Amino acid sequence: MVIKEMESAYRLFNISENLEKIARKSEEEVKDIFKELEENALYNQARVLKAFQSVPITQAHFGKSTGYGHGDIGREAIEKLYSNIFETEDALVRVQFVSGTHTLGTALKALLNYGDEMLAISGRPYDTLCTVIGLEENDMSLISRGIKYSQIDLDEEDNFKCEDIKEYLKNNKVKLIHIQRSRGYAVRKALLISDIENVIKEIRSVDKDVIIFVDNCYGEFTETKEPTAVGADICCGSLIKNAGGGLCEMGGYVCGKADLIDKVVQELYCPGLEKDNGSTLGQNQNIIQGLFMSPTVVEAALKAMTFASKLYENLGMDVFPKSTDKRSDIVQIINFGDREKLIKFIQGIQYASPIDSNVLPMPWSMPGYADEVIMAAGTFMEGASIELSADSPMREPYAAYMQGGLSYESAKLAILIATQKMLGE
């Protein structure tokens, strides 16, 4: 009976018997990996539940504040939750952050002053952050404000160049080290928590004071620890990615040392204002419930990306990461090597989405990006990349960057529908 129902589900979208057969084979081949992901999610759910109990969270924390937002007990409880889960002194979780880039940019501007140096040790950051830094010319960037930027790329195997980093720190006064956990539009592995832990130990062997800053976007709950649990001073992310669990309508978070968080507060609002500002506009329950749901939603996304990786391996295509690779973000790269196939795939993901399925994505000049970008994002929350989405800069090797999935089943169907459209079957 179950098999018959599943066959009916495939037929509803006219998925070919051949593609169905490959999909079933692919799913069977990754079943042991799925079990590992389930164990990972169970542990993370336990961590989150313990945090909820330790605060503790009550119905009273779901309230709404407006205006200045003074005395918002829900906001205060949310930030205790985050500091508990991320094992930090303090946290700033605010709906006033409009995106991950805004969150990261605000934190960087708070921590860097004229004459300071920022050293990126995981290579060139994500496209939109390059504008914040000034690698793409902008008269409001960090570089335009007299902040120096330096960069050390990962090695050929996507590992930190620890000796180069230590040598640089010995010979230069660096204020802040930037680490990007996820891959952005680079074809490299997402950095594992063990990678980050090891490089932090190497850094601290030569510099005890440099601020270690981690862009944690797409990485939350993919492993059983966050970067701040292994020595990072501060990390940032978006609430419409992993940590929001698909329920948050807006916002971002910064977790870290209390003195650093205080600076970010004043950069977000203005000098002299403290944390008891910033209305929550009725979003507390979404933030709290989204955080509670996050381990399960991230598990679904990881399963979907693992399935996609194995499916495309079985179709003879180049993927990154491989289906058997350990994952530290929710992103899957599929290398089409062909502009038209890439466009058809992205359009197929949009067609298979619950929202705006009638929209046909086309490449366009998206603000903050050096190349034209095509993006499928048929999401309940605009731009929410914990929901299934796919995008790509229109440049070689014409690879799709796919991420998210609120449920494994919906993401699996969308991947198969998009694949069939790309193959022209």
Task: Tell me the strand percentage band.
Answer: 5-15%
**Alpha-carbon distance between the two ends:** 27 Å
Low-confidence runs (pLDDT<50, min 5 residues)? none
SSE pattern, N- to C-terminal: HHHHEHEHEHEHEEEHHEEHEEEH
Number of continuous helical runs: 12
Largest beta-sheet characterization: 7 strands, mixed
Instruction: Assign the structural class, choosing from mainly alpha, mainly beta, alpha/beta, alpha+beta, or little secondary structure.
Output: alpha/beta
Strand order of the largest sheet: 1-7-6-5-4-2-3
Mean pLDDT: 95
Structural Rg = 21 Å
Which of globular, elongated, flat, extended, rod-shaped describes the shape? globular
Could you give the count of β-strands?
12
Q: Which percent bin holds the helix content?
A: 40-55%
Topology overview:
Elements: H1 2-12, H2 17-29, H3 31-54, H4 73-85, E1 90-94, H5 100-111, E2 117-120, H6 127-133, E3 148-151, H7 162-171, E4 176-180, H8 193-204, E5 211-215, E6 234-238, E7 252-256, H9 258-268, H10 284-314, E8 318-320, E9 331-335, H11 339-351, E10 373-376, E11 389-393, E12 399-403, H12 408-423
Parallel strand pairs: 2-3, 2-4, 4-5, 5-6
Antiparallel strand pairs: 1-7, 6-7, 8-9, 9-12, 10-11, 11-12
Helix pairs in contact: 2-10, 3-4, 3-10, 5-9, 10-12, 11-12
Write a structural description.
The model has no long low-confidence stretch (mean pLDDT 95). The protein is built from twelve helices and twelve strands. It is globular, with a radius of gyration of 21 Å. α2 (17-29) crosses α10, α3 (31-54) crosses α4 (73-85) and α3 (31-54) runs antiparallel to α10. It is of the alpha/beta class and 425 residues long. β4, α8 (193-204) and β5 (211-215) form a beta-alpha-beta unit. A seven-stranded mixed beta sheet has the order 1-7-6-5-4-2-3. A five-stranded antiparallel beta sheet has the order 8-9-12-11-10, with helices on one face. The protein has helices spanning 2-12, 17-29, 31-54, 73-85, 100-111, 127-133, 162-171, 193-204, 258-268, 284-314, 339-351, 408-423; strands spanning 90-94, 117-120, 148-151, 176-180, 211-215, 234-238, 252-256, 318-320, 331-335, 373-376, 389-393, 399-403. The protein starts with a helix and ends with a helix.
